[in-house]
Design goal:
Bound molecules: ribose-5-phosphate
Largest sheet: 6 strands, parallel
Distance between the termini: 12 Å
Shape: globular
Order of helices and strands: EHEEEEHEHEEHEHEEEEHEHEEH
Strand content: 25-35%
Length: 296
Amino acid sequence: VNAVAFAVAGGERPLASLCEELGAEPGRVEIRAFPDGETYVRIATPVADRPVLIVCGLDRPDAKLLPLYFLATAARQQGARSVGLVAPYLAYMRQDRQFQPGEAVTSDAFGQLLSTFLDWLVTVDPHLHRHASLAEVYRIPTRVLHAAPAIAQWIRRNVAKPLLIGPDGESRQWVEAIASEAGAPWVVLEKTRHGDRDVELSLPPLDVWLDRTPVLIDDIVSTARTMGETVRQLRRLGFSAPICVGVHAIFAAGAEAELRDAGAQQIVTCDSVEHASNAIPLGRILAGGVRSLLAG
Ligand code: R5P
């Protein structure tokens, strides 16, 4: 494809596997802070008339946004044919409406902003809840990829008698898909969020599944309150220690330890956000998405 791929803050690992899968050239770029805290960017690989990919997971996005913008702008100034973003995790998808008067709807604002300086976007399981698709927030072509096949494969290989559990209605989309690929039973719970770190869960009767290993599945693990509370309730009902599977390992400070304290047997995540729990690689899935987007 003659493409050049650059990494911004944390994109280095997915960059290597993407370049290998796609046959793209890993681009050299210098990104550093001046003593006054402003950002310096210099592209050292020719990009003229070539598709440029920027690989940047958008967890902790605020500090990454300006380097990303400067790099995209520099590539365009130097004649890149197109500039696209591979963001294995896409930030700012959860504030998708005003819950309180005066709030910024950051999913829309962030989407509009990225759409002004990028030509396309590829991501994995963005948090689509009240938005039905990324087209509602992004004005550029997007490809949404799914971790479900990779998670199902991990479960098939590692858990003998799983019961897949989604903590809330939103999780149904991926829990159902994973369960059908893994050939396992599944249930979805009801969740009410009272605050950033305050969630309440209600469980349906689960006695018939007590002989199975609960595998909790969620898209984002942030404070881990959702998973932690689910783990506690399952333990109270007499289940064996659950396995917690997250797509995006955001893990706010202290969250992983809290989840272990709650009684999780194992915490496993995809590698969209670098974390010690990463065990499910998404490189192939990402490369397939980029290839189809560049081709079409
Ligand atoms: C929200 O609806 C998501 O699907 C996750 O359940 C949520 O982001 C998890 O957040 P936390 O780990 O802070 O409970």
